[in-house]
């Protein structure tokens, strides 16, 4: 399997790209594997998603060896099938309440940038580098790259990276806002696991509302967005996690959101 998904008893979904020998390049099987992973998270009682990749590189983009075996109409149909699956996976992950944490290392190119950008918290190893790569081979972006990059780093910087294909280091990616922060390569997996574990214990429903508000707020006028904030806040306050959070604050104790979500608030 090129993508595996394991959901532990606590609700942490471990999604792993397992084509390390091929730089975790995304072909049809991997795109469908990511969609299966997203749907498994959608069906399961998932409170956080941890996306990692085997091998030296997180993801080098599309599987050009696979694509080069086809041409003309057959290639076009194949690419549509790949992007349909990959894009539906991104839509499904984005619709979850559970936040996603990604660990990226080595080469991150093409669709790999889209996967890294889709995570709510993206930690990069200090050996990571980022290259758009699309126009270098005469392709245009997919995997939401042309949507994420302008929002994360601004349209001018996004266009520079997309048109020139220059390589950005991990430190530059953090300065631009493409990744959350940089950690030593040897600490990447431990640090991302710790971050995911922290989110796992948080208020999942409030996380979901917050994710949607931030995404919607990038294109929404202020007035309607304020209305959405008010409705989301009222719903969050009324749910078990919101009640637990306030009770814990007033009781001067740590909140137990996992118990609240299961219907047994802490005391």
TrEMBL record:
SUPFAM superfamilies: ClpP/crotonase. InterPro entries: ClpP/crotonase-like_dom_sf, Enoyl-CoA_hydra/iso, Enoyl-CoA_hydra_C, Enoyl-CoA_Hydratase/Isomerase. CDD domains: crotonase-like. GO terms for molecular function: catalytic activity. Transmembrane segments: none annotated. Belongs to the enoyl-CoA hydratase/isomerase family. This is Enoyl-CoA hydratase. It comes from Streptomyces spiralis.
């Amino acid at each position: 399997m090129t993508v595996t998904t394991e959901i532990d008893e606590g609700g942490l979904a471990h999604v792993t790209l397992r084509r390390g020998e091929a730089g975790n390049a995304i072909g049809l099987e991997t795109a469908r594997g990511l969609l299966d992973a997203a749907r498994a998270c959608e069906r399961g009682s998932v409170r956080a998603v941890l996306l990692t990749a085997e091998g030296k590189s997180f993801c080098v983009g599309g599987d050009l060896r696979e694509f080069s075996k086809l041409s003309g109409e057959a290639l076009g149909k194949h690419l549509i099938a790949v992007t349909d699956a990959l894009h539906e996976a991104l839509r499904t992950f984005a619709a979850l309440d559970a936040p996603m944490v990604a660990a990226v290392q080595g080469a991150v190119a093409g669709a790999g940038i889209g996967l890294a950008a889709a995570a709510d918290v993206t930690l990069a190893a200090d050996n990571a580098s980022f290259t758009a790569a699309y126009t270098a081979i005469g392709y245009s972006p997919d995997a939401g790259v042309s949507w994420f990059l302008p929002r994360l780093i601004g349209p001018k910087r996004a266009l520079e990276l997309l048109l020139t294909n220059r390589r950005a280091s991990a430190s530059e990616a953090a300065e631009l806002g493409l990744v959350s922060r940089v950690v030593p390569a040897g600490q990447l997996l431990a640090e991302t696991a710790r971050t995911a574990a922290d989110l796992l214990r948080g208020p999942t429903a409030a996380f979901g509302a917050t994710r949607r508000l931030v995404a919607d707020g990038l294109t929404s006028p202020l007035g309607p967005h304020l209305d959405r904030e008010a409705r989301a806040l009222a719903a969050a306050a009324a749910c078990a996690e919101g009640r637990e959070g306030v009770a814990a604050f007033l009781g001067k104790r740590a909140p137990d959101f996992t118990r609240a979500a299961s219907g047994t608030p802490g005391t």
